[in-house]
Structure formats: structure tokens, C-alpha cells
Amino acid sequence: MPAEITMPQLSDTMTEGTLVKWLKKEGDAVKAGEIVAEVETDKATMEMESFESGTIASIVVKEGGKAAVGAAIAIVAKAGENVAELKKAVPAAAANAKLSTTSTETAEDGEAEGPTQDAHKDAAHASPAVSASLEAPSHDGDNGARVKASPLARRIAKDIGVDLSGVKGSGPNGRIVQADVLAAKDQKPAAAGKPAPAALPARIATGATEKITLNKMRQTIANRLQQSKQNIPHFYETVEIDMTAAVELRKKLLEMYEKKEGVRISIGDVVAKAVASSLKAVPQLNATFDEKTNTVTRYGDVNLGMAVALPDGLIVPVLRSIDQMGFKEIRVKSADLVDRARAQKLKRDEMSGATFTVSNLGLMGIREFSAIVNPPEVGILAIGASVDRAVVRDGQIVVRNMMTVTLSCDHRVVDGAVAANFLVTLKNYLEVPALMLI
Asked: Which of 7, 250, 256, 319 has the CA that lies 20 to 30 A from 175?
């Protein structure tokens, strides 16, 4: 009997997915475990593998279409089955039923009617500056030429500095999709040590307005954070940490690894190691809470979530068993996760299972902030910038490298004294880094 390739649940909160790109076409052979498509979930665009082997007889959900989790998106003919006959047997209505082009992102390209159409109508009567920002497809190339590209492809192109006017699209009607942008990046000669320019939104003319419909990722973030603030009784504790010794340690680690192996340890890696050590010492924070059963689960391994900013939201890749890693391994694995998170190439298990999360805005110059707990975790640490400040030591004003961190906790599970114990432990590890080696 023929088999179905169904829409998998690629994230914990996913209820439906959008087919961004098929990597196989009808008539192609497929093996179980082989990557066959790219699917946009409520968190990211991810690669989808087939759990069936055979020949793809019919693609039920075309590129740009949506399907609920568990719904058939392709039919696979098994060995000995007639592919052509099987394709004819698949009702055309079934294929059309699964295809939905009313999603927000499709509407952004002007290919379907929907709420975003109002924005395009507004653009027709707005000033040229507003029209430029709303009619994004007309200004994706450096030369201002109109380019046909999916919203996801446009976002990634802006993030990594790819000019879409020079990219050939492989999607429907020559539409540029994510894979085309990533392929163009690989072919583009890298500027030596020069980061991609920051993607800035177009200016809005005085007196004009711009209406933007939240994409799936932003909607999920909005819903989860609203639920967190409404349902979790947050409390916050802040401490200042003298990072002078940690900075010196980082310099020594650079001497050890950068020249010989090209691994550039960051101060964030040192902080991550200290956070992992502190969670081992204070396991009440390395935990999750199930409010349905009123049970707390504490973990012997530290799976550290790292908030990573994306052009239209954020994602939290997970560095598993970080407590068992050295500084070099933390740098290599975290850099890989962050790069693939920004390219939206993470796998499901790399975005789930965190036992604690850190959010670091220090590189952006933020001195102090508070983060919202990411349930079912019971705590999150907001890390500010590590900078030289004038402080008092032994009655004298001296310059020390200082960093402010704020711990947000779920008060249903964590009490103030436990949170303070964690912060004191973290402070000790960073002010006397040798303690992390004991």
C-alpha cells in the first residue's frame, strides 16, 4: 500500500506548518531519514525528513501551502507500485484542499487576498517612502529593481547582506526562496572579518502610517510572553559582579586557543560556564514546573537556552549538557547554534528541552534589563554589558570591570533566598574563576 508523508510537529507549540520549499519532486526516489522539504513553523523554518521510503507519487501540499500537523502532504509509492497510476488515483480535490495561500506571508507578496491587502491599498495612496516600505518586493535589489521573493527569503537576505537582484529563484514562477538566498551567500566572497550590515527598516514619511501583520514567530512570542506575565508571578533580583578576573581569564584563553586553533573565546562563554556551574550548585533553578500536575522537575544536566535575536523575533537554541563542557567546546558549539539559528537551520531538539535560559544584551551596550521567564522553566538570567567603572575598594576609588545581571524567577517555585543563593554563587565563580575548575 502507498504511504503518506505527513506534516510533522517540529516544535512543541506547532499546530500547522507552511511548505516553504520541496527538495524533492514527483517521481523522485526518497529514503527514510532523507530531508525532503523545508517547513516554516511558529518558531523557525526547519528541514523536514521523510519517515517513508519509496517514490514520491504525488505532492499534495504545494510550496506556499499550509497543512495541519499530521495531515498528508505527499503520497509515496512503495516498491512494485505503479507511480503513474497512484498519482491518478489521488483526487485533485485533495491536493487543492491542503493548499492555502491566504497566510500572512503569501499575502505580503500580493499573491492572495487577506488582511495584509489593506496595507497594499494604503500604500497606493501613501507617500513614496511609505509605499517603498509596504511594497517590499519592489525594492529588494541594490539597484531598486523589482524582485519576486518570499518574505522569509527577504528577511534572511537583509540579515546576511545578500542582494536579491542577483539571485535566481527556484520557487514557483521564479520566486526566490530561503535556499536560494543561502546558496547565494555561499557563493558570495566573504569580506575579511567584516560583519554584514545591520538591516534597518525603511523610514516612514511624516504623517504616514505603516500597518504590519505579525508573522507566525512574532505571534507565538507575543502569546507565550503574555501568558508568562499573566500566569507566572515574577520577581527579580539584581547583582553587580566584578568581572576583572574573568576578563583576565578570557585573555589567557585567547592566547591558548585563538592563534593555534582559531577559536576566539568570548566573555559570554566564560559567563555561560559560570551559569552552568551555579545551576549545578543550586539545582532549584535548573528546573521546570508543570502547573497542571503541580510538580517540579530538577535536572542533573544543564541544558542552557540562549536567546538569539532574529530580524522579526527571537529564537532560543539550546546548548545541551553545557555543564560537561570546557570553554573551547562552549565557544565552538554555541557559535554553531547561533549561526544556524540566524539561518533558521536548527533542528527540533536544538530548540527544545532547555532547563534554564540566558539573555545577553551586553554586546549591544545595555547595562541592565529584566527578562520574562520562558515556561516551563523557572528562571532566566538577563546579562548586561561588562564595562570599566569607577568603584570603591578598601576606601579607594578604583577602576574595575563590572557587569550587572538580573535574575527573573517564577515565585510559585523559587523563593527569594534561593534566587539570592544562585546569584551569590554566580558572583563567586566569576570573581574567582578558579572555583569553576574545582
From this structure: 7
Counted residue by residue, the chain has a size of 438
Cβ-contact 81, 52 below 8 angstroms: no
Q: Cell 516544535, residue?
A: 11
Nearest to 173 by CA among 110, 233, 125: 110
Q: Is 40 helix (H, G, I), strand (E, B) or coil?
A: strand
Query: What is the distance between the alpha carbons of residues 340 and 353, in angstroms, rounded to a whole number?
Result: 18
Q: Is 411 a catalytic residue?
A: yes
User: Grid coordinates standing for 438?
Assistant: 574545582
Question: Mind listing the pLDDT tens digit for each residue in 326-345?
Answer: 999 999 999 999 998 888 78
Three-class DSSP category at 72? strand
Which of the following is catalytic: 120, 125, 234, 411?
Answer: 411
pTM for the full predicted model = 0.63
3-state secondary structure of 68: strand
- 119, 91 in Cβ contact below 8 A? no
Distance between CA atoms of residues 76 and 74, nearest Å: 7
C-alpha cell at 361: 544584551
pLDDT tens per residue across span 228-251: 999 999 999 999 999 999 999 999
Distance (Å, whole) CA 423 – CA 271? 12
C-alpha cell at 109: 507578496
How far apart CA 180 and CA 150 sit, in angstroms, is 11
Strand 304-306 and strand 356-360: the pairing is parallel
C-alpha–C-alpha distance, residues 70 and 42, integer Å: 16
How far is it, in rounded angstroms, from Cα 330 to Cα 139? Answer: 40
